[in-house]
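Justification of computing resources. Each target in the renewal requires a structure prediction run like the one illustrated here; the chain below, 653 residues long, is used simply to show the kind of job we budget for.
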Amino acid sequence: MAKEQLRFLHDRIRIAFFCVGLNAFVLASLSAVAFTNSYEPFSYSAGAALDGQGSWYLTGTTSMGTIEAGNLDVSGLAGSGGNRYTWPSGNDSVRVPLDPVTNGAVYFSFALRIDQIGSFTGHDTFTGLTLGTATTYFPKIDAVCNSSNAYQLGIYKNSGTNFGSVASPTFTTNDTVFVVARYTFNTGSSSDDTCDLWLNPSAATFGAGTAPTPTLAAIGAGAADIAGLDRLTWRGTSTSAQKKTVDELRLGSTWASVTPTQSSVSSNPPLTAALGIQLNGRNVLISWPTNLAGLSLTSATQLLAPIWTPVTPVLPQGTNNTVTVPALLPQQVFQLKASYESTYESADNWNFPNDNYWVCGVLKNATAPTRYSDGSLVNGGVGYNVDTNHSTCECGSGWVRFDLHELIPFFDGVKTNWLAFHKGGQGYSSPQLPYGHLLLDDVAILDGALDCSSTKDVPHRGDPGAGLAQVQGQPPEYGAPSWVSSTGQWDSTHRNGRGGSPVDPTRYAVKVVPHGATNELPADWQYKPNVTSSRYNKYADDGPEFGDGTAHYALLTWSWLMKGDGVTTSGGGGMVRALLRDGQEFYRCPVKAINGVAYGYNSNQVVGEVTAIYVKTRASGAGPWLYGWMISAHRAKLPDGSFGPTIDHISSP
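Resulting structure tokens:
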């Protein structure tokens, strides 16, 4: 799930394989099958071994088990397809690589039938998720065999049985049991991840947005966590039940993705794709069909790498795309994935409504701490004092202006709080301008007041125009409508800050380059020509300009400063949605980057280029997901007209 969307090497086609260096051989050329909704129907020939099919591989030397004709049907679940997999007792296992996942939740489900137990009694660990070649599982599922025809199922975290439990239902051989398991990555400590198990959950819950109460819940706290998960295994041992059969394997990030009903999958048939690898002298030739549109090849030196590098050039040869790379590294991993530079809405259509979302209010206290989008305090934020005695006419004497672009919730462990973002203006005393989110609990009144600049009331909270979409109950990923000044109308078709799916599975982190640092974004670079106040650098590090100047954070904006051509300025561009702390993780969304021209101070001379990308991020696991633009890099223009080295404002976490 690449944190959010786990796939068998990609539900929109992501395929990984390994190759070794110059003098060796192909370790594995995984002719991978890509499954919509992370679905493995075992659509292979009856009698064939599972290892070598799709991306499945053997961990030992002897093939374990075979494909068997027929299905294990689960009432209420989407209809079964393909065949089923069965294996006996033995010392080998088969595994399938998955997209690496290091946070969030991983669900997997399957139909199980234990056909023969024999004389074995005790724990039989037969499946689980793990990382690389590890033989500990997170979670692992055990069949606890009580007799030759009766067993129970349990779930455990890590090795052994100290951190787990056995469910009370007893099953008999030839029962078909629908099993759903979940592993949840938590962030409080190195031993707080948990496991959950459902056995034969009610069909009424299939496809639901929320998981029902587990049969066994919150298992494993106290056992050491794992850094990530990238494999599922069917495991065999010489001391185990004599014959087990499974079918309908699914993996995903939600309950609904692993408990689909027929209506939810009828329009999404499985896809099949092959990625080829061939040694050609001192090079490796990689190929894939040209009819797989919208895909790009990337590489890394390990499967769990945080950043993958594009591999080019791609040359069409007949019905295949081909790439040739030197065989120089001891190991190199390649993946074919859906490109985030795809068919998402162009930035040229976006026009944030600038100052149209604001209301007036009064604070409970003289100070209002500025916060990140998860409610945590900004360093130095306690000193962001608010002067409510300003007498300018935006709100009137004694009132403070709040920019209600949206209200976002966060849960502090006790209750749900609401945050509003504000950006200065009426009622704020420089140089201690607040800039960020405020708790609505810090506000005594939030209502309309006289806008004496136009002699009309500003919008009230809940009225159209005051946090239009969000105040009326839409989630943050809905975004905010554009304001069309020529018609005086809201355009909900082209929404700013809206969610983008799919996101690039690579996880990045914000790297704040502080003001004054050697590689800072120069303070005199402007995004408009012949001006002195259109500075780029405040979007790269805005903290020193507010409060006591000790904070350092970048800015997430609703729409960018300019349109997709990198030159034409965007109406309402640069309006801030949230503060980005150094190291804050994010994912790229399917919107093309904007390479914006940078002008010199009060000049029309081009001095550099600043790149902005559209991302999905949150300040912590307790915060909401927010979408918007941020600076990812800049580079200076050299005297000869070329550009110097790229200075990154992002990194791997």
